[in-house]
User: Fold this.
Amino acid sequence: MSIEISLRAVKEAYMEENVKVIVVADYDVDSYMGKRIALRKGEEVELPRWIANALSEKGIVKLKTPYSVSVGDLSRYAFLESRSSHPSSLQALPKNIYLEYREYISSLSKQLKENFNPEIFEELRKAENFMNEIVRYRLSKILRVALGRGTMKEIVEKMTREELILFREISNIIEKWEKIVLEG
Assistant:
């Protein structure tokens, strides 16, 4: 399976996960998986993320906890990753950090388009910088693990789903390359 297909599958699984929402306007869904759903203002319900996002865009629901990632979280993760370059220092991150980061950045960008705010602009800039640092540190550690020929179970368990896909792909490429170069 290609890396693109694998990453798309991760995103699709994420979008199917249930999230809690608070209904802010009455709304009837004619058919969802063969069921009629009536949403009433003030209710707290769980919906698949893709439906929750669509209804949130329409102003019908509000995500109870929109993002589990913030600029403060990203700052902390970047600091922890920067403390050591050794692969064993790879930090366990929230399993959906990359997808939640993209939603977070998208939300900040949307807010800026609607009404420019210097504080939101600065938050966006910092979030992007911290995530770039996180990715750089983590990629370096993942590459070292892949070159080490072992899975180092405790390190692999700290990888996100996206990183695990990358790790496996890189490990396979290295293995094939070494076989061709060294064995002919």
